[in-house]
Specification:
The chain has helices spanning about 1-10, 20-40, 130-135, 180-190, 200-210, 220-225; strands at about 40-45, 45-60, 75-80, 85, 110-120, 125-130, 155, 165-170, 215. By secondary structure, the chain is an alpha+beta fold.
Length: about 230
C-alpha cells in the first residue's frame, strides 16, 4: 500500500515534455494541494510540514529559464545554490557534453519544487527561507555510514489536513527596465542555453509578470489543523 501511494505522487510529478503552460499550471495546483494536505517530512522522528513552496519547470512551451537544469527521476532531493528542490521527472541533453548547459535542439523538460518554509511540529517553530530549510533538514549525518532516521523522508500524513493556501508570484522579480534582470537573462542565455534560449527577453518578462507559482499556508492555520 505504501509503495502504491508513493507511486501516485511520483506519477503526478511526471509532467509530459510537450506540456503547455496551462497544463503545467494545472499540475502545480494538484501537486500543491497534495503536498500541503497529505505529506510531511520526517527526520529522526521530527515532523516538518510544508508552509511555503515555489514551482519551477522549464520546457520549450513553458519558458521558465531560471529553473536549474537537472537530469533526475521524480521525487528526489536536488541541491542547488538557491536551496533544495523536490524534483519533477527531469531530463535534458547537454550542449557539447557540458553539465548544466541545455542543448535546445533536443527535447528538454526539467524542474522541481523549491522548499521555502516549513513548520517543525514538536516546537511550533517555522523555518523560513530555502537555505535555512536545507540546513535544517540536511544536517548532522554520521560520517561513517547512513543511519536511516537521520535522513529526511517524505511521508504520507495519517490524516488529510483540511488546509487552505494562497498563490502569489515567486520571490524572483523581472522587469524590462531592470538592468540587473536584463543581465540575468543574458547570463542565462549564454551560460545555460548556449545563446539559443527558447524565449525572447520580452516573452520571458511577460511570463514572469503573470506567473503565480508560489503557494503558501499561514503558519497559525497549519498549526490549528495538526
Amino acid at each position: 500500500m505504501k509503495n502504491e501511494i508513493q507511486q501516485e505522487l511520483k506519477k503526478l510529478m511526471c509532467i509530459p515534455g510537450d506540456a503547455s503552460s496551462d497544463e503545467i499550471k494545472e499540475v502545480f495546483d494538484k501537486v500543491a494541494k497534495e503536498i500541503f494536505t497529505n505529506y510531511h517530512i520526517n527526520k529522526n522522528g521530527e515532523e516538518y510540514y510544508f508552509l511555503e513552496i515555489e514551482f519551477y519547470f522549464c520546457n520549450k512551451k513553458h519558458p521558465d529559464i531560471i529553473t536549474y537544469p537537472r537530469d533526475m527521476d521524480a521525487c528526489r532531493w536536488f541541491f542547488h545554490k538557491s536551496g533544495i528542490d523536490l524534483t519533477f521527472q527531469s531530463s535534458y541533453s547537454r550542449f557539447e557534453g557540458k553539465d548544466g548547459m541545455v542543448d535546445v535542439n533536443h527535447n528538454f523538460a526539467f524542474g522541481g519544487i523549491l522548499i521555502r518554509k516549513i513548520l517543525k511540529k514538536n516546537t511550533g517553530q517555522s523555518i523560513d527561507g530555502p537555505n535555512k530549510c536545507e540546513w535544517e533538514l540536511f544536517d548532522n549525518f554520521d560520517a561513517f555510514g547512513t543511519i536511516k532516521n537521520e535522513y529526511p523522508i517524505l511521508e504520507r500524513n495519517k490524516k488529510t489536513l483540511d488546509v487552505t493556501y494562497s498563490t502569489s508570484r515567486r520571490t524572483f522579480s523581472y522587469s524590462k527596465n531592470d538592468e540587473k534582470m536584463k543581465k540575468k537573462y543574458d547570463e542565462l542565455n549564454h551560460k545555460v542555453f548556449a545563446d539559443n534560449v527558447p524565449a525572447s527577453r520580452e516573452r520571458f518578462c511577460e511570463f514572469i509578470q503573470k506567473e503565480l507559482f508560489a503557494y503558501e499556508v499561514e503558519k497559525e492555520h497549519m498549526v490549528s489543523k495538526l
